[in-house]
Description:
The chain is mainly β. It has strands spanning 3-7, 11-12, 18-25, 34-41, 47-54, 59-61, 69-74, 79-84, 93-101, 104-108, 112-116. Strand 9 (93-101) and strand 10 (104-108) form a beta hairpin.
Amino acid sequence: QVQLQESGPGLVKPSQTLSLTCTVSGDSITIEGDWWSWVRQSPGKGLEWIGTVSYSGAPAYRPILKSRTSISRDTTKNQFTLQLRSVTPEDTAIYYCTRDRDYAFVSWGQGTQVTVSS
């Protein structure tokens, strides 16, 4: 059974870069057909998809966040990473990594709280 685990700082200062890593165990991130995404949930808001990287390494981003977002992967470590630049308090949220297949979120990490504050 696949497991996903987010890791990274819980506190980021405004204008800095938020960096999170998702470590995947139980399956390879290179399995054909899988996509590996980052989503977040802010207080009082719904779930927001941030972006994804495919099993072949192709990224895709939410248009409104595209200019600030990079998602990459390290197949040797079976990890994928989110970088969100120039953060503001509006980026405060619980961040989740997910495994996607056939346009559905099929596996989730437990989530990690990230607060943007000086």
